Amino acid sequence: xxxxxxxxxxxxxxxxxxxxxxxxxxxxxxxxxxxxxxxxxxxxxxxxxxxxxxxxxxxxxxxxxxxxxxxxxxxxxxxxxxxxxxxxxxxxxxxxxxxxxxxxxxxxxxxxxxxxxxxxxxxxxxxxxxxxxxxxxxxxxxxxxxxxxxxxxxxxxxxxxxxxxxxxxxxxxxxxxxxxxxxxxxxxxxxxxxxxxxxxxxxxxxxxxxxxxxxxxxxxxxxxxxxxxxxxxxxxxxxxxxxxxxxxxxxxxxxx
Length: 256
Description:
By secondary structure, the chain is an alpha+beta fold. The protein has helices at 20-30, 33-40, 59-71, 84-93, 105-119, 139-151, 157-162, 226-253; strands at residues 12-13, 80-81, 164-171, 178-185, 197-204, 214-221. The chain is built from 8 helices and 6 strands; from the N terminus they run βαααβααααββββα. The chain has a two-stranded parallel ribbon with strand order 1-2.
């Protein structure tokens, strides 16, 4: 039960140097409704695992609970919150986030998801489980086995909200036997497509000197040559000239 009606959560976070990575991660988690309700209602207190050596003995869960409580306070005058207490707390647990340098938001998010999951893990003694091979089983059946085995070791609200499975398959090039696995994941790192072009800034100077120098920016292949730059500039300049001529023709047509 929530002690008082919560606010709308529309509260900003002060930037402590270069901590936008922290602010963006926290706002994403804070606006996950089921997770926030779980902390505001203090239901998390029933799941705090202080004996898990892989966690932080419940300290991270309590630290995050305090932060959420502040962000969702019904104090309508509060437009922004200083997360220094939270920032200092996670820095003590992971020195990587000490100081005010910029970090990758994905790295912090992975730390929070993993740390909170361990702090709130209902499994106090994790059994050793050897995951089975596919052995010709249908994907749905094998995935279900792997997931149930995972829940025998990891059972928390973080797993329920943020964990999925991805399939990997290894096929023997000799006999053709395929072995499938359904690994759990909470974050996925996806590569961005490589840009095969680059921007080149060119200053165009008229040979006659009748026109002031003009600066253009053109995109050319990264492995391109001076000819590519020249052709790109010609296309750009010709395009501008054609556009200007069209505008002039339009003005002439409108005259009475």
